[in-house]
Amino acid sequence: xxxxxxxxxxxxxxxxxxxxxxxxxxxxxxxxxxxxxxxxxxxxxxxxxxxxxxxxxxxxxxxxxxxxxxxxxxxxxxxxxxxxxxxxxxxxxxxxxxxxxxxxxxxxxxxxxxxxxxxxxxxxxxxxxxxxxxxxxxxxxxxxxxxxxxxxxxxxxxxxxxxxxxxxxxxxxxxxxxxxxxxxxxxxxxxxxxxxxxxxxxxx
Amino acid sequence: xxxxxxxxxxxxxxxxxxxxxxxxxxxxxxxxxxxxxxxxxxxxxxxxxxxxxxxxxxxxxxxxxxxxxxxxxxxxxxxxxxxxxxxxxxxxxxxxxxxxxxxxxxxxxxxxxxxxxxx
Lengths: 204, 119
Fold this sequence. Notes:
Number of domains of chain A: 3
Number of strands of chain B: 0
Strand content of chain A: under 5%
Number of helices of chain A: 5
Oligomer: heterodimer
Number of helices of chain B: 7
Shape of chain B: globular
Distance between the termini of chain B: 31 Å
Radius of gyration of chain B: 13 Å
Largest interface: A-B, 17 and 17 residues
């Protein structure tokens, strides 16, 4: 009798709560759309009225259905949560791996050390070093110039003495005399001839 | 124009006691391509008035009185005529006229000797 009553009531047309409309969509939550076919406890009002003694059982069935829906929803949402958690965990793990194993920590430390060094260099080594270097270069250049001046002065003095000696022998009448040997006079004459030849060539 | 330094060198060699100065004057002076140098050297050799220096300008063909340049030859002859002591030059001229193989040199020597006789 209970079954018959139940069959009679179940024979009524009620909205299928699991009926879904399969449409081509990319929305995974679309399949959770029950198109407003929510289970109304009032549908079973006659059952509840007819079977007042069985209210708890009906409530259990309704609860079971609702639980199934919730479970279905959870079954869909949990992987998403897991996915998000996995991504989050993966990112965290990847970062920790990169930071510890891949050397980012070292790079950071090195950057920090390099920064300190750069700061140190800029504050002391570079400035003082450049100043000292410039001073050293200036002193070196000054020494070199002094040495070159000394050399040039010596060379100029030697050249001046040799030139004056040569000019004195050639152009000074008192120098060209019988005091010179015949060989010296011959050499002077040959040099004069060479100078004359060069002058003629240049003029030509 | 002859170089002043060359003139001084020639004068120094002409006044030099060393006999090798004659060789230098002959080598560099009488063989010079410059007429003025040859002329001045020949006169310097004449002024030395020694046998070897006078022989250079009298008996050598193309040098001194035998130079192809008339100015050089005439200058040398004038210098010979200006010598106070002509003993050595006459001796060389006679030897040249008598013994030299080249007729042109002999003829020039004979002419100079005639000029000396007339001077």
